[in-house]
């Protein structure tokens, strides 16, 4: 699957542990807790907020098939992965105004409140997640590679979340041909099927895993990458 980025600076998406459904013996015969809480909005203060959507648990084929066009050997071997628990994921890449509100400064080169924050140091990521967790009382963390790809695919099995046709890419992503080699404000392109924006293109996004050059021997249930 192709990620397609146009900046060497990094940003990340934020996740939260999802609420559990009520037990089977519950007297509540209405919608489940998950159905009631498909969206979550975090208040960061000063009229700055962060919207998240619930990503369901499920299975998917992680990596790319051997015959896929433009495939890198590092994208395999493809295998079925199970994510056993639902989770919340931010609808947009973390913006500069969100980072500024939590951290008190903005390290980005391409300034703009609605632009994704550009970070090259992992300690800034960890600090942001801690500050946001303390502020909201929620557990905020960085996605594993499996969670990220599962959310990006949104049920698709094609080269891109929207299909295989390169000609449609401009409708979903800022990339080499249309980005002028700079990040753009979040949410200007079409979202994927689960309502997530800029999963293709714009800027690199952090994952929690240490890097591995192959999926050979990797866990198939809730993988977290190398220790």
What do these coordinates show?
The structure is a single chain. The protein has a five-stranded antiparallel sheet. The longest helix has 15 residues, at 122-136. The chain is built from four helices and nine strands. By secondary structure, the protein is α+β, with helices and mostly antiparallel strands. It starts with 9 loop residues before the first strand and ends in a 21-residue tail after the last strand. It is 16% helix and 18% strand. The radius of gyration is 18 Å and the shape is globular.
List the strand order in the largest sheet: 3-4-7-2-8
Round the Cα radius of gyration to an integer and report it.
Answer: 18 Å
The low-confidence parts are 4-10, 22-27
In helices, the fraction of residues equals: 10-25%
Secondary structure layout plus pairing:
Elements: E1 10-12, E2 15-17, H1 33-36, E3 39-45, E4 48-55, E5 58-62, E6 79-83, E7 87-90, H2 96-103, H3 122-136, E8 140-141, H4 145-153, E9 204-206
Parallel strand pairs: 1-9
Antiparallel strand pairs: 2-7, 2-8, 3-4, 4-7, 5-6
